[in-house]
Amino acid sequence: MLNAEDIKTWLKKIGRDRAWLAEKTLVSKRTVDNWLSAGKPIVPQKMELIEKLMSGEEEIEFELPPDFEKQLRAMADEAKKTIEDMVSHILQVTAKAHQKRKAEAVHKQFTPVKTFTAPPLEAQGQIIGNIAAGNLADGDTIPQDIRLYRELEKGEYLLRVNGHSMEPSIPDGSVVIMKKYTIPPIPKPGTIVQYHDERGVTLKKLVCRKNPETGKMEYTLHPINPAFGDIEP
Q1: What domains are defined for the chain?
Q2: Tell me: the pLDDT tens digits for 111-163?
Q3: Rounded CA gap, 112 and 56, in Å?
Q4: Side-chain-facing half-sphere of 201: CA atoms under 13 Å
Q5: Which residues of the chain have pLDDT under 50?
Q6: Packing angle between helix 83-104 and helix 68-79, nearest 10 degrees?
Q7: Spatial distance between the Cα atoms of 139 and 162, rounded to a whole number of angstroms
Q8: Where would you tag: which of 15, 68, 158, 187 has the fewest CB atoms within 10 A of its CB?
């Protein structure tokens, strides 16, 4: 069983430092320092990867996009995983794909993986239509199948956002998961809602403000983007 001293000896022998090992195992240098100096345990997935590196097996090369950390955090949030769990999941999926390619290319020249491999999508969903993020407007109802990282819960449905009034939180073209609202009759202020009347449909934040003329509290449909105005429901 490998230990920290074995890994430190190996790094010295091959002329590599801890920063290199951190890059190869997709963790921070601080994590590697914890493994090798503070005696923190190495998770099995990372230990397996280190063993492969030490045995001289072909390395899997990653060309990560500039905003990889942001994408990874969003993927982890959507999958309800920690970033470390998501990284481990990606490593497992990539390693399996790598081994499959090796098996299929016994008589071919090996080509290292050069692109980031996202984890597989796990659930099937359907976008049931579009919703305006601007003024009230008609939305289409052309369904579109989409793959998701989780199953939709009871009462949830998908809409694609058209418009810029909810940016930067919800960019134009985003797919939003909506949930049917029944009790109590009106959502609490601050909730992002799908509102519709005879004028059309729109995605807005529901707020409650005092009418300066009547002194009464009234509901308003408020955009996140300050370039757009409120809509009176």
Answers
A1: 4-104 (1.10.260), 123-222 (no CATH)
A2: 454 454 554 555 677 777 788 887 877 766 667 787 877 788 888 888 888 88
A3: 14
A4: 14
A5: 58, 107, 110-111, 113-114, 116, 119
A6: 100
A7: 9
A8: 15
